[in-house]
């Protein structure tokens, strides 16, 4: 079945369309500087082909979530799931032929690349009987298939680049038609861009990008100036699904709007100098603490993992007689202290540390420690934070607040709460990194921002660089500490 999607009009005013069936077999590359109309073009293509083919959108800025209300796309928030859950959702998308938008706006660059790689690989690895045709639209593709290394981990970059390469090179046989859009051709991996057979080139100004665009369009270098002169919303089209010769297309109107923000000029306020002084230097009133977040009802993925591990792992018979009941808490506390002090435990999965905990308890004469995997994870986090007895009421309040956080953030949060409860200096980035099991100070700064965005803490840094952190729901505040520092 042939279906043509009308994108807009050519310079003569005649309708210009793209052959959807041909697009599924040949893939599409869209290029243009910021403000050239790339997202508008993608939105037009998605709206006009909705209902004709399954659509999967990788959306790093959350611009396309508005398709959900009008066209029934499901929105998957990338920050709300683990990698395993993302892969499971992607498999179900292929099975049920659902059109979705994977929104990554709440993730940082490394998290976006990791999530997109997991999602695309799961789409690619679907069983043969689920290989239905689907448009896979990737906006800002240079983020997921960079031409060179960046600030993200090399392992994450390779995984993301590999997933994008599979989509563009081998996806056709699995029914996946890649539609990728980028601001800079020079920043997009060449082996990903080269697999597209259809091109829509928008306005661009840098010579290196114009040269690559001209090469892809089969134009001479002197003709590349035409790309610089294109109006916003106008693209040069070439390819078997578009036109056999470069054709200028002005993209038509769309029915849904972007969730993003387009800056526009507006009149400035005109207060008097006296009013301006009062507005800028008025005393700051103390704001009441925000309401406590509701506890997370669903179990954490890592809790399910260690529960499954504990259920499947047989407990060996004790080699020595069982210790007295009153000695058990002391043995558990001692073993936890040993685990916290052991540098080899940093960065290990919680399930692996739980196995080591059971072994050490048996060696100490406690064959069956009265601590299930979830309770162990909580006790270990408290031990890393320097809390000897997490069952005390005020620590239970702090742990209840932390239910809104991923379980691996419990230890740094409790370390902050412990310092705030006693009015001790704010923990340093190095101390928080040790409790979190990382050596990256940048990751700790992102962690603090994440916790603060959920209204669990309030961070303040004075002009001397000393940091103070409050836990407003409990009324606790640390003394000023050394705060952040840059690693040499």
Automatic annotation (TrEMBL):
Gene3D superfamilies: P-loop containing nucleotide triphosphate hydrolases. InterPro entries: ATPase_Atu1862_pred, HerA-like, HerA_central, P-loop_NTPase. Residues 7-77 form the Helicase HerA central domain. PANTHER family: HELICASE MJ1565-RELATED. This is DUF87 domain-containing protein. It comes from Sphingomonas changnyeongensis.
